[in-house]
Fold this protein.
Amino acid sequence: MTDASVTPASTTVVFLLFPGITQLDFTAPAQALCRMPGARLFGAAASRDAIATDSGFSIVPTDDFSSCPQADILCVPGGHGVAEALNDRATIDFIARQAASARWVTSVCTGAFLLGRAGLLTGKRATTHWAYAHLLPLVGAEPVSARIVEDGNLVTSGGVTSGLDFALTLIGRLHGDAVAQAIQLAIEYDPAPPYVGGHPDRTPPAITAGLKARVYDAAAARMEQAFGRKL
């Protein structure tokens, strides 16, 4: 792992943005990482036009793919728009190009499949949102049921809220536990959810089955079909 004592004074963090992104996949880790000493955050998309999120509002990128600086940390969020992004050559090429020189290559939720489409998960241990984990072998990855999975300089995280855990974990790797804990305190990240659950292992089976039937069975099928199309 990276030794905090050799962390550069400035760390460039690049987030991939695309239509249909889950905003919390992006904004949760961004909120923690922007407080990291020396952090410079960029959001890159195919153009600088506003990107529609899954929450009914849009995000304006700081850069397009050609103007974005080289990342020290590359982060690829997920969202229902991943199925379309999987077959966008410019998006996949941008990921591959940035990952080639990044010190850390990371994803949140279904962003793992974009890393995989760029050839970055072959033979790697990885995680993603629980409803899509069975598809990880499509990109050559070994699925691991965990909130955060580290394999070399690759860090993948589970669904949506796990992006904040990933960010704090990485800050600890780069700057030490005290800095990560201070940032956790600053954003008052002290989870106390009103219900026991949040993962199929701890949620009543009927709730999990209902959610899969309403949302994730069809969404996972769309993702799988996307892999049947060549770039």
Remarks:
- Helices lie at 23-33, 82-85, 89-101, 111-117, 162-175, 177-186, 205-226.
- The chain has seven helices and eleven strands.
- The longest helix spans residues 205-226.
- The chain has one domain: 4-226.
